[in-house]
């Protein structure tokens, strides 16, 4: 039950995720940059965006596109300079937009000076800043954990004669959070950015920072005799002590809000993680707080599974906490392609998904291009893909005996490049993203799907996004209202009611590509506010139809 209408500001805004390499290039080198982002603030403000989350822009060798930081106090020259960053912060303020930085604190690049020092010997000022272990007597890695990007989670270092641990790639050594000097160095970094005017943090891979006491072998989960590292290290006992200290030293009593990437947190643990006594304000939990991983198409989820997963996260955060609503991010495929068949009408599908994004209870996180209905790329050769995980998953699939066709279909469905192709601004060469050679190929549908074209079309996905985001901003019911699921067992319709102080909104989305019917008594004398079909019948939903009805009571 919502206590009062005096919501914190971050519960009322729409957040917009920017993938800086692909948003807007201002200097023609083919990579997006900070100046490019600053040049697009008018557009972002016009969308009703109150916060932009930029994936990491720190100095980095870019092996994992910035999630491998070599200096947290410097801007990657590819993105610009510290002056550009200061200018972006100042301009964003003028547009009433808060800047959210990404804190990558589970690991650094192996080119970070901390690691360069640490690897030299067992006796140096940073020797205990990473997780080093001796080999097993036969020289093999300390245990059978597999890194998230494939291969052993341990890499041998000859100078030290030891292995180091990495949750992700071998170029991303994990920091040793047990060492208080490490923790202090990280808090100093976050405070430096708060000092610069950053108003929010997205905190990367934070559930992995506390390793279990025992580094023994885990029970193998695949034919390679290995076990996924995150099954062994996520959300380990004692992690909350670190996180409470982190909060106390960084954002407690400051006007800064936080959203942590925290997979595996269960509803009953939420109270320690978010809300009044929690460590963060929101969590990106890809499993929807045990509702299910809605992106994992391989699990062959039905529409009902996806709906119920989302309902689980709505219910789990009803009493405590607040949910960041999202369909897309830089690690996931495009939502239209992930949820609907190729034959589906992408404009209707885009509007249906955005209706849910902007009317569920929580803070919507829209990902660049989602507001215009961008789709997956479906490249048919592995050579077209840039992203390291796509390539390693492809090789793994081939090694496991899958044919080239099957392996590429898997990559097409999951590749993180689907979301990373350049933003589609207009129909000119390279979609107005760059006047140089884009670092990653554009989606060839940009002449049809782009901002400029959609600006001029009242029936576009973009026009729909604007209407709903403006409406949400002023709707007490959407901001404050309770969430109640309707037609829970319906396999096509995703329907719910939001209620606040005697007023309600009923949202009905046909989450399928076939007609759907319901009993019109569900709506009583409620009046239609929005429909992506223009008009609406109480009792029948066309394929992918999305309606919002309003009523007193
Ligand atoms: C997070 C990021 C992802 C990155 C990984 C390692 O999951 O979202 O892009 O590869 O962390 O930092």
UniProtKB/TrEMBL annotation:
Domain of life where this protein originates: Bacteria
Entry keyword Hydrolase: yes
Classification via Gene3D superfamilies: Glycosidases (3.20.20.80), Golgi alpha-mannosidase II (2.60.40.1180), Oligo-1,6-glucosidase, Domain 2 (3.90.400.10)
GO molecular function term, any single one: alpha-amylase activity
ATP-binding keyword on record: no
Position of the signal peptide: none
Organism annotation: Fibrobacter intestinalis
Coiled-coil boundaries: none
PANTHER family on file: ALPHA-AMYLASE FAMILY MEMBER, NEUTRAL AND BASIC AMINO ACID TRANSPORT PROTEIN RBAT
Domain Glycosyl hydrolase family 13 catalytic intervals: 17-420
Record protein name field: Alpha-glucosidase
Alphabetical list of Pfam families matching this protein: Alpha-amylase
Keyword annotations from UniProtKB, A to Z: Glycosidase, Hydrolase
Family: Belongs to the glycosyl hydrolase 13 family.
Gene Ontology annotations of biological process type: oligosaccharide catabolic process
């Amino acid at each position: 039950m919502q206590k009062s209408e005096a919501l914190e500001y971050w519960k009322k805004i729409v957040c917009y995720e920017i993938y800086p390499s692909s948003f807007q290039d201002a200097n023609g080198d083919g990579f997006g940059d900070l100046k490019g982002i600053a040049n697009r603030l008018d557009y972002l403000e016009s969308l009703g965006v109150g916060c932009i989350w930029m994936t990491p822009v720190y100095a980095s060798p870019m092996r994992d596109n910035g999630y491998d930081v070599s200096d947290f106090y410097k801007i990657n020259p590819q993105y610009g300079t510290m002056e550009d960053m200061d200018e972006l912060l100042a301009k964003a303020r003028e547009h009433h937009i808060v800047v959210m930085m990404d804190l990558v604190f589970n690991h650094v690049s192996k080119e970070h000076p901390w690691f360069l020092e640490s690897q030299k010997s067992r006796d140096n000022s940073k020797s205990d800043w990473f997780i080093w272990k001796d080999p097993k007597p036969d020289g093999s890695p300390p245990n059978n954990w597999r890194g998230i990007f494939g291969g052993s989670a341990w890499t041998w270092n000859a100078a030290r004669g030891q292995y180091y641990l990495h949750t992700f790639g071998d170029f991303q050594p994990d920091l040793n959070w047990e060492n208080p000097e490490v923790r202090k160095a990280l808090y100093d970094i976050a405070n430096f950015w708060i000092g610069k005017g950053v108003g929010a943090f997205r905190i990367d891979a934070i559930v992995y920072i506390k390793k279990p006491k025992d580094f023994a072998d885990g029970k193998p989960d695949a034919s390679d005799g290995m076990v996924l590292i995150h099954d062994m290290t996520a959300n380990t006992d004692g992690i909350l002590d670190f996180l409470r200290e982190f909060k106390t030293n960084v954002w407690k009593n400051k006007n800064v809000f936080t959203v942590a990437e925290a997979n595996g947190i269960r509803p009953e643990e939420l109270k320690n993680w978010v809300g009044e006594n929690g460590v963060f304000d929101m969590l990106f939990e890809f499993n929807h707080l045990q509702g299910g991983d809605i992106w994992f198409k391989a699990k062959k989820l039905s529409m009902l599974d996806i709906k119920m997963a989302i309902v689980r996260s709505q219910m789990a955060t009803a009493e405590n906490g607040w949910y960041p609503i999202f369909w897309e991010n830089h690690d996931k495929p495009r939502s239209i392609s992930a949820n609907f068949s190729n034959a589906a009408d992408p404009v209707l599908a885009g509007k249906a998904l955005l209706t849910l994004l902007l009317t569920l209870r929580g803070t919507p996180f829209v990902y660049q291009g989602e507001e215009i209905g961008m789709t997956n790329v479906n490249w048919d050769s592995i050579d077209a893909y840039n992203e390291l995980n796509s390539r390693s998953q492809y090789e793994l699939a081939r090694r496991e005996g899958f044919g080239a066709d099957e392996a590429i279909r898997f990559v097409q469905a999951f590749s993180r490049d689907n979301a990373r192709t350049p933003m589609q601004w207009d129909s000119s060469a390279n979609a107005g993203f760059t006047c140089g050679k884009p670092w990653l190929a554009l989606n060839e549908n940009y002449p049809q799907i782009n901002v400029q074209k959609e600006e001029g079309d009242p029936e576009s996905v973009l026009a729909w996004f604007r209407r709903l985001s403006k409406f949400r901003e002023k709707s007490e019911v959407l901001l404050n209202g309770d969430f109640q699921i309707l037609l829970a067992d319906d396999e096509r319709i995703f329907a719910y009611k939001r209620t606040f102080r005697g007023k309600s909104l009923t949202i009905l989305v046909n989450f399928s590509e076939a007609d759907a019917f319901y009993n019109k008594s569900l709506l009583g004398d409620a009046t239609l506010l929005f429909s992506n079909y223009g008009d609406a019948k109480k009792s029948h939903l066309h394929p992918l139809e999305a309606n919002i009805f309003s009523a007193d009571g």
